[in-house]
Input
Amino acid sequence: MKKLFLLMFLVVSSLFLSCSREEPFVAPPPPPEVITVKINEVYSRGTVGNEDWVEIYNPSNAQIDLSGYKIFDSGGQGGTKPKKEIPAGTIIPAGGFFVIVVDDTTDSGFGLSSSGEQIWLESASSASIDNVTFPELGVDTSYARNPNGSANWSKITPPTKGASNGSGGGSVLPVVMNEIYSRGTVGNEDWIEIYNPNSVQVDLSNYKIYDGGGNGGTKAKKVFPAGTFIPANGYFVIVTDDAAADGSGFGLSSSGEEVWLENTAGSVIDTISFPAMPVATSSYGRFPDGGNNKQILNIITRGTPNQP
Output
């Protein structure tokens, strides 16, 4: 009897202990990371035909539907104007870009301040997912994440609208003076050809070009008109020997001289000392285009690829 009682006691005790023992804690798996699109690049110096824009980047490995997402500046944030909504059906591919022109004629259109401001991006559910305060920018410069999607922002020149900002920022190759013609006549005045070695267009607005007079301050430097764009890997020809109202016109010396090109920041980005042109059917330029080799060109190729 005692043995039976002892056996029953051990069984009950075992059951009690097994029920009262705490199970080891197992942490639940972390929630999956939510990857959202980001504001990736901002351009605030737009002109007619090339208005202000904002580039969105998708850092995920899956496409994202941007339908109903909104972007806005302080007007939209403060409720004084509607937020700009991204159209329904807008899909941004994995690792891809979407550019929205913000300075349009709609009620929600907003021009980005040339002196800098803050902008916001929110999801279709009105959740704020990104914002950036960008600084004052030059006409040939944007403000961008470098590299794409990172926390590092920097100014890049020229802008890389709809393309990768790259590990080193935007394309930093300056435009160059590519061909010079100094034997002009009435109706075919002296000119200088500019070449863009980049794979994106460059805004030449307010760039300056000049000879010894502009360099020495005895006459005004010739300013490229606002809204002057040079296409990717393309050319722009500026006539230097004109009757400019500001007195900046300069005839290129047929015996040779030095000319300078500077960007909107006032930095000289190219200078060339060209010799006398032997005949009126020759020019002086780089061959191949944009290269370091400069020579007399026996075929004038104004606005087209140079030939030796």
Q: What stands out?
A: Residues 167-171 have pLDDT under 50 and may be disordered. Residues 38-156 form a domain with the Immunoglobulin-like fold (CATH 2.60.40.1260). The longest strand covers residues 268-275. Residues 37 and 64 are 8 Å apart (CA to CA).
